[in-house]
């Protein structure tokens, strides 16, 4: 809708905005650095509204918590949009001047009354109305979201529905107002910026654009195929068909991080050839034909990282890597050399200079400036450009230069797995503050705070099932089963269970999550598996 994937606002704006709509994100545990800025905003008078199936540690700071049913986000957003229109709170002037497609959006959200939304989402109509009016009436307001929005079979539609709300109210393109996907790892944003996307070249430039691609052909001395590649889901489907037979996996552990990991392990294990380049011998590396030991990015290499506010910052080598581990850049350049392409002795700075020479939004970011100015936010077009704290200010110009922001109407589409008598509960997954992803790094701690995974249930469900805290149960889905001890969690509502995949060596939750995927993004529906919980028979003594 805007042309590039990145948060529109800076961290400072979260401290000075009037309202923060935190949707599908337990930022306090998943994005603790950013949550500190949210708390500063709250202490400065901002209103915090949390939309989340759990009353998480983030939602506990909110003025208003909307505890919606898993997978009903579009219904909630559309109902808020309809209420804003009906109540006369839409920014008609902004819509007329800066957007297109509004009439189609108005028509699409018309059936989403507050009463209908209450039935679908489980949230009282009056609470939805309160959230809609507060967001629309605020002078400045930000929407922030994470995997609770994107890890669904309709994750793209979820995001579109939130951006529609921002366009409807004019809450984009100015200080303190915008739409912000928070990044869960220290260089997720930088990976996308650098072209690690199936349809984009570095700098979010479309690979199917002949003029843009020609500049890369000339710089690289090769012809780049003029078509989009496969996303991760497409790669697995290609393995299934036999169209993809070799994989080079760098810094990723899909055997334990992907949904329905039985299938992932089978497909990766059936490849003709797989290389894994990583800092630990992961479960994925154990399947590889060749393992290349890499240096840890944050302490053993030079380079840059880009955070959730699009700020590019320098990373400086602090120590030598252990043993035979080498920097990723050195490994890749040596492989290129053996394939007939001598790149000389590339450094991180040389690679960065090549990148910014081809990506206009990064052109002004020299290493010298990044160091002198403690990082810069893209876009930064030349040596005199200060970088942009917030994006899309052009939408407030009159007349709007270039393409207008487009409303994209979407409809509610419930989770793929419906609840049933056989599988009556919903399992959603997420992160915990003291652990990290598949536990490869945080699990290596000498004295970890948490030693294994639990199944979190609300007190009401535990009483109904006759369960005691710490009791081990079996969690069953259509794809398999795992066993885990029960933990009481008052943040949950009846019928909802929660787990993470931080401890796959003991409880591999992703063996039971569903791999139904979003056809637009390829993201699996990690957040919405249908489960049943079985009490285990006591183990005989003696």
Explain this structure.
31% of the residues lie in helices and 17% in strands. A hairpin with a 3-residue loop joins β7 and β8. α4 packs across α8. It is globular, with a radius of gyration of 24 Å.
Lay out the secondary structure.
Elements: H1 11-16, E1 19-23, H2 27-30, H3 32-43, E2 47-51, E3 64-66, H4 73-86, H5 92-98, E4 99-100, H6 102-109, H7 114-121, H8 125-137, E5 141-145, H9 147-150, H10 155-169, E6 178-181, H11 188-193, E7 200-201, E8 205-206, H12 210-220, H13 232-241, E9 246-250, H14 254-257, H15 261-269, E10 273-278, E11 290-293, H16 297-300, E12 303-306, E13 311-315, H17 328-338, H18 348-358, H19 367-372, E14 376-377, E15 405-406, E16 425-430, E17 455-457, H20 459-465, E18 472-477, E19 480-488, E20 496-500, E21 529-535
Parallel strand pairs: 1-2, 1-5, 2-3, 4-15, 5-6, 9-10, 10-11, 16-20, 17-19
Antiparallel strand pairs: 7-8, 12-13, 13-14, 16-21, 18-19, 18-21
User: Which residue ranges are poorly predicted, with pLDDT under 50 across at least 5 consecutive positions?
Assistant: none
For the record, the CATH architecture of the largest domain stands as: 3-Layer(aba) Sandwich
Q: What form results from the Cα inertia axes?
A: globular
Please outline the major beta sheet: 6 strands, mixed
Mean pLDDT: 92
**Gyration radius, to the nearest Å?**
24 Å
**Assembly state:** single chain
In spatial order, strands of the major sheet run 17-19-18-21-16-20
Secondary-structure-derived class: alpha/beta
Strand content: 15-25%
Which fold name corresponds to the CATH topology of the largest domain? Rossmann fold
* Integer tally of domains: 3
Helix content: 25-40%
Number of helices: 20
Compute the number of strand runs: 21
- What is the CATH top level name of the largest domain? Alpha Beta
First-to-last CA distance: 66 Å
């Amino acid at each position: 809708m805007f042309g590039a994937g990145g948060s529109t606002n800076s961290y400072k704006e979260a401290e000075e905005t009037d309202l923060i709509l935190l949707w599908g994100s337990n930022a306090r545990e998943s994005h603790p650095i950013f949550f500190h800025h949210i708390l500063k905003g709250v202490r400065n008078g901002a209103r915090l509204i949390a939309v989340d199936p759990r009353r998480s540690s983030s939602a506990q700071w909110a003025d208003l918590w909307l505890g919606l049913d898993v997978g009903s986000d579009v219904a909630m957003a559309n109902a808020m949009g309809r209420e804003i229109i009906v109540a006369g709170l839409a920014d008609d002037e902004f819509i007329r001047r800066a957007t297109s497609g509004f009439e189609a959006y108005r028509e699409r959200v018309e059936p989403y009354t507050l009463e209908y939304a209450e039935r679908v989402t489980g949230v009282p109509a009056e609470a939805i109305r309160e959230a809609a009016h507060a967001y629309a009436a605020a002078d400045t307001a930000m929407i922030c979201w994470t995997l609770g929005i994107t890890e669904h079979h309709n994750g793209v539609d979820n995001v579109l529905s939130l951006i529609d709300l921002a366009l409807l109210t004019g809450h984009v393109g100015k200080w303190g107002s915008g739409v912000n996907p928070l990044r869960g790892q220290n260089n997720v944003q930088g990976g996308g910026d650098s072209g690690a996307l199936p349809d984009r070249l570095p700098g979010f430039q479309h690979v199917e654009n002949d003029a843009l691609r020609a500049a890369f052909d000339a710089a690289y001395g090769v012809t780049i195929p003029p078509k989009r590649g496969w996303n991760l889901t497409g790669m697995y489907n290609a393995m299934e068909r036999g169209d993809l037979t070799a994989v080079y996996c760098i810094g990723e552990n899909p055997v334990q991080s992907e949904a329905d990991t039985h299938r992932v392990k089978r497909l990766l294990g059936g490849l003709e050839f797989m290389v894994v380049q990583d800092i630990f011998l992961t479960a994925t590396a154990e399947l590889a034909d060749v393992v290349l030991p890499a240096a840890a990015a944050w302490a053993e290499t030079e380079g840059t990282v880009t955070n959730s506010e699009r700020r590019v910052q320098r990373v400086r080598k602090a120590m030598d890597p252990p043993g035979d581990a080498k920097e990723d850049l050195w490994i890749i350049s040596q492989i290129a050399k053996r394939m007939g392409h001598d790149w000389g002795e590339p450094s991180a700075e040389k690679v960065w200079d090549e990148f910014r020479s081809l990506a206009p939004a990064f052109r002004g970011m020299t290493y010298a400036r990044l160091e002198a100015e403690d990082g810069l936010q893209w876009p930064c077009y030349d040596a005199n450009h200060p970088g942009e704290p917030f994006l899309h200010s052009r939408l407030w110009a009159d007349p709007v230069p270039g393409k207008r922001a487009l409303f994209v109407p979407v409809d509610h589409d419930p989770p793929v797995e419906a609840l049933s008598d056989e599988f009556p509960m919903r399992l959603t997954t997420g992160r915990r503050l003291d652990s990290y992803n598949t536990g490869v790094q945080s699990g290596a701690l000498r004295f970890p705070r948490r030693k294994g995974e639990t199944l979190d249930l609300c007190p009401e469900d535990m009483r109904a099932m006759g369960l005691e805290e710490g009791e081990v149960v079996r969690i069953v889905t259509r794809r398999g089963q795992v066993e885990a001890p029960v933990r009481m969690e008052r943040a949950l509502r009846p019928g909802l269970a929660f787990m993470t995949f931080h401890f796959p060596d003991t409880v591999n939750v992703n063996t039971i999550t569903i791999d139904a995927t979003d056809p637009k993004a390829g993201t699996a529906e990690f957040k919405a598996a249908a489960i049943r919980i079985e009490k285990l028979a006591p183990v005989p003594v003696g």
